[in-house]
Amino acid sequence: MFTLKREDQIEMLSYVAYSNLSITESACAWVQNHADTWRLWVIDRTDGHGPRLQVVLPVSLVALFLALLVAVILLAIVAHQIRQRRRMRKINIELETQNKQLLTALMGTETVEGELLDTPVESVIGILKTFLQGKVWTEQEKLQLEFVIGMIASRKLFRFDDNPEVSESLEKDVKEYLYDQILQKTYSVHTIPTDNVDVIEWDELQQTDLALLSMTGAWSFSGVDFVTQCEEAGKNPFELLLMHFLREHSVLDTLTTINVPKLQQYMVATYMMYKDNPYHNTRHVCDVAQAVHWMILACDNVMQLQPLERFALLFASFIHDMSHPGVNNNFLIATRDDLAQTYNDISVLESMHVSSAFKLMAQPALNFIADFSPHKYKEFRSLVVTAILATDMAK
């Protein structure tokens, strides 16, 4: 056994637990004789009260005691958490039972399976399933009804590749074409043909044109009235409005590399890209475009925008909702729509609007900035992208 000198043993007393025991001379001698067996360091001393024995506990025993104490504390904490979880689980069960009882009393039914929380699609599926089980169907009819239920549940009503019979009989390009045609038919896109819209000659504006543009400088401008009057007069609202704004801001006098005829045709095509949604439609676009025009004029002394910046902002106002499907970003993300997958759930619609606009511009007949220098094109595109992405109100 390893032993320490007397003075070292005394210093050890400041590092380990110890206790002082009053003992007799004979007891002190007995303990000292058995110190090695007990693995204790024993020091005897004599003071005014007689001999005393100082017993020093080894460090290993102290560490073992502390470890046992920590283990007991941890076990007590775990036991407390388990009791808390059991208590919360019991409370949750009681609350769920009370909720079901309240819903049952409210609806006057014996059980509530959650029908109140069903979406319209889930309700339709439930009705069809009930209908399927309530009658004797032929095998063919049963398969067809099950197919209908499956398609509604999958939210892929316009996908040909989900129908095995059609998918096997059509080429990929044909399926994509039919898919696009069904989407256009479903969302009722404007179908004003380009050959029915005259390219405006700005040197000889007709009285009807001047009358249509008379309210564009006022905050009380109405996009609804403007679009209605333009369509009645056989004018394209986007073309007429943008060209008027560019003239008001002297953009075309400075940016001489803009191909005006192609820009006019581009605006006609842009107008046709908008769907007849309740809100995100051509009337809304005209309202936004006029508001941008008005604010540029009102803040001209402070902002002092350059011609390219004015052009980019005005152009962005017309394309900011191009091809809008009529639903918001959250809906596209929740339904795992292809657009959400393409743009990684980040400003889905806004990214799509910008992409659609520049893809349309890539057509040679509509590329009105083909003569821009690479630097000017990069600056113009950056301004447009920034302006459109800023319309994501969730950011």
What does this structure look like?
The protein has helices at residues 6-12, 25-33, 35-38, 59-107, 120-133, 139-154, 164-169, 172-187, 207-212, 223-233, 237-248, 251-254, 260-273, 282-298, 300-303, 307-319, 329-334, 338-342, 348-361, 374-389, and strands at residues 18-22, 41-47, 50-56. It is mainly alpha-helical and 395 residues long. A three-stranded antiparallel sheet has the order 1-3-2, sandwiched between helices. Strand 2 and strand 3 (50-56) form a beta hairpin. Helix 10 (223-233) packs across helix 14 and helix 19 runs antiparallel to helix 20. The longest helix is centred in the N-terminal third of the chain and has 49 residues, at 59-107. Residues 6-23, 41-48, 109-117 and 182-197 have low confidence and may be disordered.
Summarize the structure.
By secondary structure, the chain is mainly α. The protein is 62% helix and 5% strand. The protein contains 20 helices and three strands.
Which features characterize this protein?
395 residues, mainly alpha, three-stranded antiparallel beta sheet, 20 helices, 5% strand
Strand and helix layout:
Blueprint: H1 6-12, E1 18-22, H2 25-33, H3 35-38, E2 41-47, E3 50-56, H4 59-107, H5 120-133, H6 139-154, H7 164-169, H8 172-187, H9 207-212, H10 223-233, H11 237-248, H12 251-254, H13 260-273, H14 282-298, H15 300-303, H16 307-319, H17 329-334, H18 338-342, H19 348-361, H20 374-389
Antiparallel strand pairs: 1-3, 2-3
